[in-house]
Amino acid sequence: KNEVEQSPQNLTAQEGEFITINCSYSVGISALHWLQQHPGGGIVSLFMLSSGKKKHGRLIATINIQEKHSSLHITASHPRDSAVYICAVSSGLRNNNDMRFGAGTRLTVKP
Amino acid sequence: DAGITQSPRHKVTETGTPVTLRCHQTENHRYMYWYRQDPGHGLRLIHYSYGVKDTDKGEVSDGYSVSRSKTEDFLLTLESATSSQTSVYFCAIGDLVGTQYFGPGTRLLVL
Q1: DSSP code string of B37-92
Q2: pLDDT tens, residue by residue, B27-85
Q3: Which of A41, A95, A102 sits opposite B48 (nearest CB)?
Q4: Contacting A residues, span 22-81, partner chain B, CB-CB under 8 Å
Q5: Which of A89, A106, B74, B77 is deepest in the core (most CB within 10 A)?
Q6: Share of chain A above pLDDT 90, in %
Q7: Model confidence at A52: pLDDT above 70
Q8: How confident is the model at residue A96 (pLDDT cuts 50, 70, 90)?
Q9: Cβ atoms A87, A32 nearer than 8 A
Q10: Dihedral sign, CA of A9, A10, A16, A17?
């Protein structure tokens, strides 16, 4: 079993819908990361969080440390949100050489 | 965007030949990483670097070596490429709070 599990693997939505992507992990962590991989392949860091909630524009990330679970929400989804969203966890080593990545959730938003 | 480039961006080579991929950063970050990304797998760490001439193995280091003679450059070498090393390779740099910034990736095909 992977240390970081994401669901769903694939998600198709209509423009304007509210999107939720889930991430569960089985190891102790100090931080959880959400990344976005564009169709062209580039990877961008969206959030790093260790507790509570963070918001950036239409994106909201939450984490529940006790339940070892995080969610990424997208409000008012748009076709430009189509991408692969990757969850990753790190244990807190300063150099982050122990990051573990989920396999990603492929989101397609149709106009 | 963090100043991080990779070269080449695409490479086709034959089994048994040596290949070197270059990662160059202009951010003066101490930490640098090489990952590979394969279908069905999350990003997996190959090697990482704490600083000049200070490197260590990651999860999937067999068949790979690295060198870092300058802060800005991190080289990944496949001494004798095999078909199992066909992959997309990402370099990343890490800041002091743990966020990683990824390069654009290199697509390597070993025939």
Answers
A1: E-TTS--EEEEEEEETTEEEE-TT-TTEEEEEEETTEEEEEESS--GGG-EEEEEE
A2: 999 999 999 999 888 899 999 998 999 999 988 999 999 999 999 999 999 999 999 99
A3: A95
A4: 31, 33, 35, 41-45, 48
A5: B74
A6: 78
A7: yes
A8: low
A9: yes
A10: negative
Compute the nearest-CA separation of A8 from chain B (Å): 14
Q: What band does A94 get if pLDDT is binned at 50, 70 and 90?
A: low
Quick check: B42 and A31 CB within 8 A? Answer: no
How far, in Å, CA of B89 to CA of B43, rounded?
9
Least Cα separation, residue B100 to chain A (angstroms):
7
> Quick check: A95 pLDDT over 90?
no
Residues of chain A with Cβ-Cβ distance to B40 below 8 Å are 103
- Nearest chain A residue to B51 by CA distance is A95
Report how far residue B68's alpha carbon sits from residue A17's, in angstroms, rounded to the nearest whole number. Answer: 46
Residue A53 pLDDT exceeds 80: yes
Interface test with A, best of B102, B107, B108 (most A CBs within 10 A): B102
